[in-house]
Specification:
This protein is α+β, with helices and mostly antiparallel strands and about 475 residues long. The protein has 16 helices and ten strands.
Length: about 475
Amino acid sequence: MKAPFVGPHHPGGRARLRPPRLPEWRRESLRTTLWFVPTLQILGAAALFAVTYAIDRAAYDGDVTLPSWVNNGGADAARSILVGIAAALITVIGLVFSITIVALTLASTQFGPRMLRKFVRDRGTQVTLGTFVATSLYAVLGLGSISNGARGDFVPHLSITVAFGLVLADLGLLIYFIHHVAESIQLPQVIASIAQDLSTAIEAEAIGGERDRNGPERPAGDSAEDLIARIEAAGAVVPATRSGYLQFIGYETLVAIATENDAVVRLSYRPGHFVVEGLPLATVWPAGAAGDVARALDRAHATGPHRTLTQDLAFAIDQLVEIAIRALSPAVNDTFSALTCIDWLGDGLCKISAHWNPRDVHRDPDGRVRVIAAEASYARFVDRSFDKIRQAGRGMPAVMMRQLEALARIMEYTTTAEQRTVLLAQAAMVLRSSEEAIPEEGDRADVRRRYDTVMAVVERLAGD
């Protein structure tokens, strides 16, 4: 019988908790904010002004001589120049913010509210906003540095010249930003960008899994199957401390804590799943180690109000599926955008079929099983990619034919019979849907020809 819930603040802990390392999650979190990059640029502008101000002071005191091309006007002219720069940039900043808000509004309306984070995390937008704000701050600092002194009015000539250079850079950046926004809100570009995120996430998972499997670990101790049986019989359940989407799991931290306590942790969820406060998040065996592991688990995972691409490949798939469903809705009726989404989904599944080999068991340096992750199913990715689009495109020959063409391409990259079985099940569902929902015999024949192509690929691969 299982032990009762053990909360994350159980007093029986003995392990020395190591600070969790969440580099990927923190990087993604900072990337999806509009303030981080502009803040760094503002600090850089302040540092740049400190340097140019020090040089201007040295030139004012006669310690250095500035080049002839440096601005050498008087105090009144300097104030006019810096005031003009600061005022103009404030106006441009308002324009940039307006363009950004319009782009976000269009994205939310056309692509869905979940696409907003895709635009917010765009580096071009963040750098543009930060550059204009930083230049404005630099001009204000220069304006405040103009003062009276024993040698007459102090004018930061080098700082004014640098401000001129920053303004010229801002003009070029403004032209780039307008072009960038006009390009980024085009639907094919949005779809291709999401597909690139999916490819990057697949590559990261494949490389990480290959590195883990080629590591120094050698299996030792009990097998994962035996440990799962013991966990189910006598494990202590650790509840979630807050509700939300699981965004990141620090497997290395959990392995270290489980090793120190000679315990095994079985996780109930993978990143992307929604967890509810108070319900089981993991199970620990032996039950006596659950207190220490519960505290570590609370610190080694991130839960938030939204999903991220970190450790969650299905999120990018869901984004493409959402765009396709919206395109197939009667209100939009944009079949070609849906076909584009199917093409990119097929590309992603080709990569998953060829390289996806999830690591569900994490071992310590001695080769003992310490963390058992929730199962990642290949069928889950395929179903998420095809089911909703097939249902939304029921009765549309173009959509069904494109799905079967994608299945034929994916089949070429399969590495196991189980993968082919999953793809064949999807192809059969598309065929049945076409037979039931398409009235024209010619259209049904076109769909059957695509289905026959899928079967031909399967027969060829089976004969190899």
